[in-house]
Amino acid sequence: MDAKAKLVIKVDRDLEDIAPGYLENRRKDAEMISVALERSDFEALKMIGHRMKGSGAGYGFQRITDIGTQLEQAATLQNRQTARDSLDQLVDYLDAIEVVYV
Amino acid sequence: MTISDHILVIDDDPEICQLVNDFFQKNGFQVTSIPSSKGLQDALDRQKVDLIVLDLMLPDEDGLVVCRNLRSRSNIPVIILSARGEEMDRIIGLEMGADDYLPKPFHPRELLARVKSVLRRTRAAPEEVDEDDSHAFYRFAGWTLDVATRQLYSSRNEKIFLSGGEFSLLRVFLNHPNRVLTRDQLLAFSHGREIEPYDRTIDMQISRLRRRLNDDPKSPELIKTVRSLGYVFSARVERTDSKS
Predict the structure, then answer these.
(1) Residue B98 and residue B187 in one domain
(2) Residue at A1 is within a domain
(3) A67 to chain B: which residues are within 8 Å by CB?
(4) What's the whole-number average pLDDT of chain A?
(5) What's this model's pTM, rounded to 2 decimal places?
(6) pLDDT tens for each residue of A69-92
(7) Cα A82 to Cα A77: distance, rounded to the nearest angstrom
(8) Does B194 touch chain A (CB under 8 A)?
(9) Do A55 and B19 touch (CB under 8 A)?
(10) How does strand B51-55 pair with strand B30-34?
(11) Quick one: B71 and B159 in the same domain?
């Protein structure tokens, strides 16, 4: 993906107050995933993935739900590589998106 | 929707709670959220709750058990949320007494539509008085109603006289606590007839029942008036098979 290319995501205007904070918290998730990977803490990875899966699409970010699903499954199987891929995908996604409220 | 319906959300994910809080408040609801079933009783005691949104995967208890326990002692409508999303969970949830089921992730607009639909449905057609309660005891706000003897007891065990109409009305309220009942519904369920133009029977009986229950008519705690709609009996009601 072109580093400067933006992925436009349309989000319900009623979520305008809380969507930015939600994305900010996913940045924190990325940090926590990184730490959990270093510690091989698969329980923590599973919980982070589970919550991303359950909330992402509700805030308008289906991709976060998809990444969360993948991370939760990887953690359950203790598959470090897929968990790391999930982290990379999350960071790429957060860097790429531009939110438009409709 | 009545003015400021109160939704109680039970979910351990703070971002789900925030999503529902924010979206529903923007749409005219009052919302309280708690992270586990531990605070449920306190929340129900503190304030009238019109509907509960319940996550299945709670840290302290399975949401299905919470739903079943809730249903055994309350008529408050329940919508289950779950990331599990399995068909069997949905079936069990509904069998446990939930009024609807929504898998996670969900769009808050869909949850809003379901909440409105459940509230409409449960208010439009409340069940008639449960005839199986003929030997039950209802406890509420320190009072006890013995249905078999039609006797009301105060917290100090004093017997309070109730007329037939007052007893029937109180029984209807105890069968439908924390739900708005229109005058038509109250009259139909307590007297088995339809309201007529200018019929003030219910209003007069409400007034008398409030006096029996020491409920200040200027600022009632138990039988609250819902302007242009009817009345709501605002208390936690327990039903048991024995008085003590």
Answers:
(1) no
(2) no
(3) none
(4) 95
(5) 0.64
(6) 999 999 999 999 999 999 999 999
(7) 10
(8) no
(9) yes
(10) unpaired
(11) no
- Chain B residues inside the 8 Å CB shell of A25: 15
Whether B23 and A15 lie within 8 Å, measured CB to CB: yes
Residue B1 counted as domain residue: no
Residues B152, B119: one domain?
no
The shortest C-alpha distance from B62 to chain A (Å) reads: 17
Percentage of chain A modeled with pLDDT above 90: 94
Q: Using CB atoms within 10 A of its CB, is residue A43 exposed (0-12), middle (13-18) or buried (19+)?
A: exposed
Query: Residue A65's domain is classified under what CATH number?
Result: 1.20.120.160
| pLDDT for residue B130 | 61
**β-bridge pairing B6-10 and B230-233:** unpaired
Q: In chain A, whose CA is at the least distance from the CA of B20?
A: A58
Whole-number pLDDT of residue B198: 46
Instruction: Tell me if chain A has a CB within 8 Å of the CB of B106.
Output: yes
Distance from CA of B124 to the nearest CA of A (A): 29
ipTM of the complex: 0.89
Asked which of B89, B124, B159 is the last residue of a domain, the reply is B124
Inter-chain touch A58–B108, beta carbons under 8 Å? yes
Is residue B93 domain-shared with residue B46, that is, in the same domain? yes
Report the C-alpha gap between A13 and A19 in whole angstroms. Answer: 10
Residues of B with Cβ-Cβ distance to A58 under 8 angstroms: 16, 19, 104-108
Q: Where residue B220 sits, what CATH number does that domain have?
A: 1.10.10.10
- DSSP 8-state code for residue B57: B
User: What is the C-alpha to C-alpha distance for residues B214 and B222, in angstroms, rounded to an integer?
Assistant: 9
- Asked if residue B231 and residue B142 are part of one domain, the reply reads yes
**B78 in the same domain as B182:** no
Model pLDDT, residue B196: 47
- How far does the CA of residue A57 sit from the closest CA of chain B (Å)? 6
Domain range spanning residue B142? 131-240
How many domains would you assign to chain A? Answer: 1
| Average pLDDT per consecutive 10 residues, chain B (244 residues; last block may be shorter) | 80 96 94 94 89 91 88 81 73 78 92 90 60 85 91 91 84 90 79 51 85 91 86 91 71
The answer as to whether B135 is a domain residue is yes
Rounded average pLDDT over A45-69? 96
In a domain, B217, yes or no: yes
Residues B169 and B67 in one domain: no
**Of B85 and A25, which is predicted with more confidence?**
A25
Q: Which positions in chain B touch A22 (Cβ < 8 Å)?
A: 15
Return the bridge partners of B7, or none.
B31, B51
In order, the DSSP letters of B122-187 are HHHSPPPP-GGGTT-EEEETTEEEETTTTEEE-TT--EE---HHHHHHHHHHHHSTTSEEEHHHHH
